[in-house]
# Entry
Amino acid sequence: VVALIITPRVEQARVWRQLLSERLPQMRFRCYPQLGDPAEIDIALSWKAPKGLLGSLPRLKLVYSLGMGLDHLLDDPSLDRRVPIVRLVDPNMVEQMSEYALYSTLYFHRRMDVYERFQREQRWEELPLPHTPMRRVGIMGLGEIGADCARKVAALGFPVRGWSRTRKQIAGVRCYCGDGELDAFLAECDILISVLPLTPATAGIVNSVTLEKLPRGAYFVNIARGGLVVEADLLDALDSGLVDGVMLDVVAEEPLAPDHPLWTHPKVRITPHIAGLTNPYTAVEPVYANLKRFLAGEALQHLVDRGRAY
Ligand code: GLV
# Structure
């Protein structure tokens, strides 16, 4: 069985190859762009494969996403819909994402955005500190990542709301679901954190209409995908005071263009898509376990439902 490892940085692909070859000596691993004969490749382990590449592998039997998001695979029309896709579920990455959610919650809750400015202005001034049980935090998306974020933010004493496509139950979290409950959810988010997958149903979900539903002066954090947000609407909401601060780890076009207004907006904090980074040293275990199942002809874990697109 031959597997092709595709990552934008070939050094990363080599790390994967090393870790997987040690565990699966019966398989052969190649690192893109060293394809060899495309007709020999059975499995693609892929993070952001060039569009069309997967479709050019005639024997492909399985695609393994090397990131938690799947949009990089599902928006490639060349990939035959019958080829099963497996999601990477890396507990280490889930923890990293929750750390970012906790950090951004505390950052805005404790007004660090304003105190940073005060320091620059050498201003010694105290702001009112809202009581933690009054600061409602909303998590959009309650999959592996969102559920962990919700539990951990709740553990700090914040009232947590969650919203997802299907009904979820998480102890200590008030869960809303579907389009019908979106407005009620948004109305209770003093801090809104997005961890939604990017699908045709969620693209542009954060826009002038939905931002209007937030309590005035809310904060918005996006650690999922830039395509969830209509950026012009977000900038308008910041300028009108509807939204008081945002922290974005992802933007519609990455890297963010040098002249993009988000870079310099005083109410915007930007990080370069680092909230959760795939670490092959921890992520290798679930991948290894699943590849072993594949070799044994057993059912795979974390298979993607192509109908739902995540
Ligand atoms: C990162 O954005 C990922 O989907 O793993």
